[in-house]
Design a protein that fits this description.
The protein has 192 residues and is α/β, with parallel strands linked by helices. Helices cover 32% and strands 30% of the residues.
Length: 192
């Protein structure tokens, strides 16, 4: 039996936690209190507010700790926390992840292959992704970088016919490769 020398543990993904001070966790001497109906009760000592909240059957929750004195409400803490977590999940799902998709070309690419890469690039840009175009040069192709730059510029000009292109990284030679990173702003309506 062989035992691995390296132990890779998956680190659990941390969800943003909601840290609200509740009842006995509140350490400030006085609070501005808002009751369960939204009525401002004024400034009370933390002890008085906790007793009042318990009499009414609610938890005392600090909702705004940044001001002086902090603002606390009479709430059902479990329900309040659930609502806040639901809001966070909704906000997180609303964010669109922008990926960088890659297109690889060579100076000797055939016309059909080039058309397929152009079609792929348009699909990537329509999905809102960034596009990394890479021209790979091998052997003697490296001595004719101007051909690779011309191919890359023609490819970008083709994309400009359908999209407003923002060049995030201009074409640059790095070893035997020429790279450029683009982002498509919006589709130009050419049907007029």
């Amino acid at each position: 039996m062989r035992i691995s020398r390296y132990h890779h543990r998956k680190v659990p993904q941390q969800n943003p936690t909601l840290n609200f001070q509740v009842n006995d966790q509140i350490r400030v001497p006085e609070l501005k209190i808002i009751d369960e109906n939204g009525t401002n009760l004024g400034i009370l000592s933390t002890r008085e507010a906790a007793i009042l909240a318990e009499e009414r059957g609610f938890d005392l929750v600090v909702v705004n700790p940044t001001i002086t004195p902090p603002v606390a409400k009479f709430l059902n803490y479990g329900q309040f926390k659930y609502e806040k977590e639901k809001e966070l999940k909704k906000q997180k799902s609303a964010l669109k992840q922008v990926d960088t998709k890659g297109i690889r070309l060579t100076p000797r690419i055939g016309t059909h292959d080039l058309e397929m890469r152009q079609k792929q690039a348009l699909e990537f840009l329509e999905d809102g992704n960034k596009l990394k175009i890479e021209v790979v040069m091998r052997g003697r192709e490296r001595q004719h970088k101007e051909l690779a730059f011309a191919l890359l510029n023609n490819f970008i000009n083709f994309l400009k016919q359908s999209f407003e292109i923002r060049i995030e990284q201009p074409p640059a030679a790095q070893g035997g490769r020429i790279n450029a990173i683009l982002a498509g702003e919006k589709i130009i309506n050419k049907k007029e």
